[in-house]
Amino acid sequence: MAKGVLGNDPFKRGAASRPTESSTPGGEDKAAAAETKKKPGPGGTASAKAGGKAAAAKSRKHEGKKTSGKAKGGKAAGGMKGAAAAARPPAQAPGTRAPAPQAERTEAANAALSPREPAPSQQARTPQAPQTSAHGADDAVLPLREPAVSTPLTLDSQAPGPVNDAGAPTPKQRDVDLALAEALAADVAEAVATAAVDAALGAETGPDAEVERLMATEFATELAEAAVEEALERGAPAPSLEQEQERAAAVAAQVADSAARAAIEQVRALHATPDAPAVTRWERETPVRVVVTEEADTSAVEPEVELPDATRDELPPSRRGPLSLVPPPATNAGEPSYRESFPADSGRGEPEGLRPLAERAVAALSLARDIAGQALASESLARALLAMGGLKDMLRAGLGTGGGANLDEYGKDPSLVERLEPVLEFLYSQYWRVSVQGVDHVPPGAAILVANHSGALPYDGLVMSMALTRERPDLRDPRWLVEDQIFHAPMVGTLFNRLGAVRACPENALRLLDEHRPLVVFPEGYQALSKPFGERYRLKRFGRGGFVKLALRTGAPIVPVAIVGAEETSPLLGRIPASFLGLPYVPVTPLGPLPLPAKWSIRFGEPIGVEDLEPEAADDLGEVQRLTERTREAIQSMLQSLLRERRSVFAG
Amino acid sequence: MDVSRPGKGRLRIAVTGASGDYGRLLLSRLDQDPDVESILVLDVVRPEGDKVEFHRVDLTRYDAESELTDALTERPVDALYHLAFLFGPIRNGSLAHELEVIGTMNVLTAAGRSRLPRLVVPSLTAVYGARGNNPAMLREDSALQGCPHSRFVTDKVEVEGQVRAFRERHPDMRVLVLRFAPVLGPSVDNPATRFLKNPVVPTLMGFDPLWQGLHEDDAARALHLALRADASGEFNIVGRGVMPISGLIQQAGARPLPLPGPLFRAGLHTLDAVGAGTLPVALLDYIHYSWVADGERAESALGFIPLHHVRDAAAALKRS
What positions does the domain NAD-dependent epimerase/dehydratase occupy (chain B) (predicted)? Predict the structure, then answer.
């Protein structure tokens, strides 16, 4: 039986996915109770099984509905377990209630509750229902649930709510409304049916009275729910959720009440007749529903697996928000369009003439919001804004009003570098397209990276440190040494210092190497920057060999580095004397302080080890000279090969 | 505790300039130190305190040296804190010179005669001078370049020279020179606090040197530690961290106003010449270039670890 199988599945899932049993026992218990009571005849068992299954399935659905109700109504029912939640009239969740007989319902609850007190002692073992018996066993150990009444309140047919949600995106709101209304109606129907059946059966007692009562209630409820479904689906759309709900509740109450008597009759007839006819009867009746149930259950599997978790009250309130059966139409559009859906929703019920206009206006509005939101959220714009912010900070830092509380003792401001990251990233990977070769030659720990200095504006130190940070994140934060002159210049000196430049002097170099940092030095110094463009990539004198002495004293290896591209980035066209600024001259470059988009290549050579030399060799001028020359040649040859390999200055 | 002499459990301490900022900070500490028996104050004003023995000495007088010797030899002391220094330039330059240089000379002579076991002299990290060619961290052995435009700093450099010469002449004595970074705090008053307490603080456009600051509590603690430290020589006493001057100004609740250098310079010189100068001209150097001292030696030899970050020290100014 499809129903049995389908009804079974959620059980297992429920048992598996829920650590606390309290929410499920509702349906299971009912099944168990019904089953035990039905023991006398196999037909009874079958029907009980079906009823139990239906109830169980319903309870699950009800939970799903409730989730939607909660999410929609914004009710965060914190700390409330499933059972407790079920115990309270669940109809509270979705907004305004139909004037459903609350008192009646609670009475019914009490009435329904009492007969289930005795725990089932035996289990049904019928060939048709092996799973059922298993459930009976399971249920026997479960605590008797109090909130049983309200648990089986939804109809199988309500399942299409979520199904439709998943399938058709447009009438989602409508579906949710329907589902809510149906849930409410089911509630009402059950309560009314219970009351009616109780009234009809009256003081009747007997071994089967309780079972009859239950079954009759079930029948009546089901009939009522089917009626509600039909009424909701066939009927014209009500202008609002509230009205729809009211209507549904009214239909449910009427049908349940009138069906109660018929249901009792049916139950009695069922009872009297032998098993076979009963089964067929059920089967005759069920197909109608089975069809519905089937599609409901199979397709509702996904939401059902999800939903119980969603309803967990352990969920932090912050995560309850998005728990709606209706996902926001366009996830990237974000809030505006989500909010937009409500006006659209209420507008749906308006007279036909108004609808298109209103809808169009609403749609246009939401589209505009979408576009605006997307534009704001678009990556490039955001990056541009960030870059602007970074540049502003850079300007402030240069002016001397940057502040900053987490500078290191060399004056580098990591937060400024971070804020400038969009700009640096653009320069590094898009503007200069820096390509790095042989970066693995840089040994971990202290190392002296000796590079050629070039270009009228010393971008190379910055690019070197960026290359090292990007390509070798395992190394410590590299620093580069710059000459004193730059620190006498306003703005430039401060800015370079904030970005990581350190004044070149033995004390600083020793300290930096002591900290096991890669240290970038440009031994040519200032002469390399002031050489005319015609002499590009021709190495100048390598200072007085300070870096070699440093290497000999500290044992740090020397890594020769050739940089190609920096000369063309800011070619020196002329010099303006500027001693009043504290600078020997102001360089004339094509774009002023802005660099040209030349392609950069950085090649790291084999380290020149100095381990075999004593630190005292630092005082041996000949040795120092030899090592200096060796480094210089290594860099010059790497430069030549890089220049030979270069096909174009700007392209590539 | 090398300070305590054999057979004497409790310390007797002499302090000059006890009414100054350093003296005030130290005396409150010494008052609470159970090992300190009495404090001999050699000053022109009597400070508060239960342990205080007051002996009036005017260090600028010609007979100060003999008075000091008498006071120090009458009952031997375990340590002499020579704190009688100015905390900023004053208009009367010759008086400042008398007090700082001649006063120190008198104190050193008296200390040498009375064979004191320990002498503590405060100084400033400003004596290193703020230069573009300073290394990132100035160690104690860096040259004292001072500030040629400032008599105040020049005097300090001269005092340091005297004390160093004295230390070399008396290798058995413990002579500690504590070079304090600008002391910031609600209860101290020096050029740095006056500078930072303005609502709008002029700075040099395009320059944002790194500053250090020392919270007054840390300063007091360092002075107190010098009483027992088994070390001699100079120590940089600096707070934790460094800050650019603009950050320091912002922390102190003010706004930096970058002015072009030549304009600022001319304005400050003019103000100074007419006698309305609120900022010492020498401060220009210190807001131009960094002068960051390395407090590593104080940590290893003196056991002084600053508790306050410089930004807290600056923020303490705002609260006051």
Answer: 13-237
